[in-house]
């Protein structure tokens, strides 16, 4: 989509004119637009946690992330990327969900994202639990499998829960590989840690070819070498960034459903994301923000800030594709 860029693009409400606590809350204080053909990058909420296996509440994540995104400004202070000058960005509202029927919810979410993808818009989403990434992949990766850079405490490649339940927030990437949506050899998982159900829990991820960087290895590698490894695995192909906030230590993000101590710091998370600039990024999400478990709002602030970091990467990638 060869759209003009610059000052005619949608712009956030200026906090120097309208205070952050004013105006209707949208992602990054951008206009609310319902037509995906009018944007390069679509900011979307998915208020659904029907795949949660323990502590629910991530359905409330998009609303609180919208609130906290009012703290974001227009230009990245390190890269100097000005995303709203590079791409047309707007809040497309929330994907339709069904809080009662899981399979129907997956179909509704997929259908919404299929329209976004058909319009040529790149999705950046706020969850919701991590199962939301599966219907997003079903919408954007039907023609060819994509790569993924995945930040998380958990691999999310389990097979099933509670008998024959194949669809939970612990299974999306196993299903995505099985459905031919995700290329495991172009997938890297960063920050994996915590106790597991059995000794073979990680067997699928490792045998399928995913590069799993456990937190202990990250501590030895450091940020720069981890970035280099992630870039090596992703290569030049289309790649998606998925960030579960439980990848960060719960000292920083207590408001999540499955916290695991010993995780990334918020600064490490920012540096890791910034190191992905230049890759062919085609979408991203920030998931598992559960506001009921953090009344301070800090976890939602982390979620909003990570969304802005990913937005800058996507805007840069969008501009580079346009100028090829």
TrEMBL record:
<keyword id="KW-0479">Metal-binding</keyword>
<comment type="similarity">
    <text>Belongs to the arginase family. Agmatinase subfamily.</text>
</comment>
<keyword id="KW-0378">Hydrolase</keyword>
<dbReference type="InterPro" id="IPR006035">
    <property type="entry name" value="Ureohydrolase"/>
</dbReference>
<protein>
    <submittedName>
        <fullName>Agmatinase</fullName>
        <ecNumber>3.5.3.11</ecNumber>
    </submittedName>
</protein>
<dbReference type="InterPro" id="IPR023696">
    <property type="entry name" value="Ureohydrolase_dom_sf"/>
</dbReference>
<dbReference type="InterPro" id="IPR020855">
    <property type="entry name" value="Ureohydrolase_Mn_BS"/>
</dbReference>
<dbReference type="GO" id="GO:0008783">
    <property type="term" value="F:agmatinase activity"/>
</dbReference>
<dbReference type="InterPro" id="IPR005925">
    <property type="entry name" value="Agmatinase-rel"/>
</dbReference>
<dbReference type="Pfam" id="PF00491">
    <property type="entry name" value="Arginase"/>
</dbReference>
